[in-house]
Amino acid sequence: MKDFIAGLPKCELHLHIEGTLEPELKFELAARNGIELPYADVAEMRAAYTFDSLSSFLTIYYEGMKVLRTEPDFYDLAMAYLRKAAEQNVRYAEIFFDPQAHTSRGVPFDVVIRGLRRALMDAHAQLGVRAQLIMCFLRDFQAEYAMATLLESLPYKEWIAGVGLDSDERGNPPRKFAAVYERARQEGYLLTMHCDVDQDDAAEHIRQAIEEIGVDRIDHGVNILEDQRLVEVVLARGMGLTCCPISNGYVTDSMKAEGIRKLMDLGVRVTVNSDDPAYFDGYVQENLVALHDALQLTREELAQLERNAFEITWLPRHLKDAYL
Ligand code: ADE
Ligand code: ZN
C-alpha cells in the first residue's frame, strides 16, 4: 500500500513553510547569516525536538526560524520543501507563511514574500509543482497587528490566495479577529483558520469560525464531532477540513484516526496534510501511511482523501478539474 500511496497524485493544504525548516538547512542558514546555534550538530538539534503540546512545539518552532533573514533564505526554504513535495508526487500545495514571525524580529514583509514567491514560480517551471500562498496571522498577537499586516500585504494581493490564523489558540478565539477577517474578505482573500485539535473551547471556536467569521475552510477542526449541528453545517456547505494526523499525535494524546474515520464516513471533505513536517517527522506521504496503518484504509478511501483535497483547493474550477 505504501507504493500505492507513493503513486497517488497528492495535494497539500496544511503546511507551514517555516515548519519545513529541516535541521540541515537550519545549520546552513545559521552559518550564512553568522548566527550561533545552541546545538553542536543535527542530531543534537533533533534530540531537542521534545514537545507534547501546541505551546511547547511553538516555542521551538519560533526559535528555529530565527535563522531566516534574507530573501534568498526564504527562497531556499520554499525550494527545499517544493523539491520534497515533487518527490512525493504532490501536484499542488497551498502553503502557509507567518509574516509576523519575521516582521516582529525586524525582517521586512517584502523580503519574506518575494523569496517565497520566487521559489513558487521556479518550482512550477522546473518541477511542475503548482503552489499558492496563504498568509497567516498570529493569534497570540494583537488584532491591530494582524490588521496592519493585512494592509501591508495588499500590494502583493495577487500573490496571496487567502488568509489563515495560527499560533497559540488558548485565550485567542476566532472572534478576536472578526474585523481583520471582514476586511480580508472585502479585499478578495479566501478565509481559513486553525481550530486546533482538543484545545480549550474547541467546538465553540469552530462555531465562531463558521457562524461569526464565515470561513471557507477549517484547519484541523476534528472537534466538530462534538456538535452535531456543526457537522451538519459543514456538510451542507461542503466545507473542507485540513487534518494532520502525525501532528495530532505530537500535540495531543493521539493521531485522532478514529475521529478522521468518522468524518470520512459522514461524508465530510476531510484531507490529510503534514502541518510542520520538519518537526513532526512526516511529510504528506508519511501522514497518509500513518493514517492507513491506523485505519486500514482501502485504495478507494485513500484516493477519496486526495479527491477531497483537490476539490477544496482555492484554485479556479478549470484548474481543479484538471487534477480531479
Ligand atoms: N503554527 C505552526 N504550526 C502550527 C500548528 N500546528 N498550530 C498552530 N499554529 C501553528
Ligand atoms: Zn497548522
UniProtKB/TrEMBL annotation:
Binds 1 zinc ion per subunit. GO terms for cellular component: cytosol. Substrate binds at D276. One of its GO terms (biological process) is nucleotide metabolic process. It catalyses: adenine + H2O + H(+) = hypoxanthine + NH4(+). The keyword Disulfide bond does not apply. Its cofactor is Zn(2+). Catalyzes the hydrolytic deamination of adenine to hypoxanthine. Plays an important role in the purine salvage pathway and in nitrogen catabolism. InterPro entries: A_deaminase_dom, ADE, Ado/ade_deaminase, Metal_Hydrolase. Keywords: Hydrolase, Metal-binding, Nucleotide metabolism, Zinc. Residues 9-324 form the Adenosine deaminase domain. Zn(2+) binds at H14, H16, H194, D275. Belongs to the metallo-dependent hydrolases superfamily. Adenosine and AMP deaminases family. Adenine deaminase type 2 subfamily. The record marks H220 as: Important for catalytic activity. CDD domains: ADA (cd01320). It comes from [Actinomadura] parvosata subsp. kistnae. This is Adenine deaminase. It is an enzyme of class 3 (hydrolase). HAMAP family: Adenine_deaminase (MF_01962). It comes from the Bacteria.
